Amino acid sequence: MQTIPEGFKNRHNTKMGTWAKLVILSGYLTMEFMSDDGETTDQVEYSKE
Questions:
Q1: Cα–Cα distance between 23 and 36 in angstroms, integer?
Q2: Residue 2's pLDDT band (boundaries 50, 70, 90)?
């Protein structure tokens, strides 16, 4: 079952200082950080453990 909020499924920008709290109940989430040019600058994987 995938319950990732729609706003997190697509590329988006946030203002400096904006934050969110995601609770991972099972599985994992891979998050990519991108430059303004669309290149991946960092990738982080989060899991329940």
A1: 27
A2: low
Average pLDDT, integer, range 9-23: 83
Side chain identity at residue 8, one-letter code:
F
Distance (Å, whole) CA 30 – CA 34: 13
Asked if residue 26 belongs to a domain, the reply is yes
Report yes or no on 7 lying in a domain: no
State which residues form the domain around 44.
20-49
Distance between CA atoms of 37 and 21, rounded to whole angstroms? 26
Segment 1-7 shows an average pLDDT of 71
**Domains in the chain, number:** 1
